Amino acid sequence: MYKRDARWVGRFYNPDSMSVSIQSLTQASAQLLRRAHQLATAIALEQLAEFNLTPIQFGMLIVLNERPGIDAKTLCQVLSLDRASLTGVLDRMEASGLVTREMDPYDRRARVLKLTFKGQEVFKQSSRQGVGTQLAILEALTPAEQARFMKLLSKLVDAQTQRWSKRNTQEK
After folding, report:
1. Exposure pattern of 108-143 as b/e (b: 16+ CB <10 Å)?
2. Do 131 and 125 form a contact (C-beta atoms < 8 A)?
3. Given pLDDT bands bounded at 50, 70 and 90, which one contains residue 163?
4. HSE toward the beta carbon, residue 123, CA cutoff 13 A
5. 1 lies in a domain?
6. Angle made by CA atoms 42, 132, 81, in degrees to the nearest 5
7. Which pTM does this prediction carry?
């Protein structure tokens, strides 16, 4: 278990009853991250609505544009998705004519993923909204705050990814 800073514990718990208050819940890191994710997703959906794309689908367009012929396992790693989630998203994108799954020319058992012509066009047209999404999410912060926030958020994600990776390795 992680050691808790006494100041953090004092803010989060009522020391008399050891119960968690609504105010402390709304200021808890997990709650704030969840709420920020909700809002960021809503902004992204609004920005990408005219292209009928979800944030995950837009992320896939970015990766497939930069790395045509990538395999599904690597795509999962790049996007931090599990295989089951990826399969559903790929099925929908393939049905929309945005991506294809082709036989790997070097390994006939494997499939590689590529954007179709339509997928390339949708990527080009939606890229401006993708950038707009990032700007809209961070617009309440000054440029210096944005840089600091992104640095801290990356540090947090990297540390927790490493923690979970070690934990999963130990469980095997």
Report:
1. eeeebbbbbeebbebbeebeebbebbeebbbeeeee
2. no
3. confident
4. 21
5. no
6. 55
7. 0.78
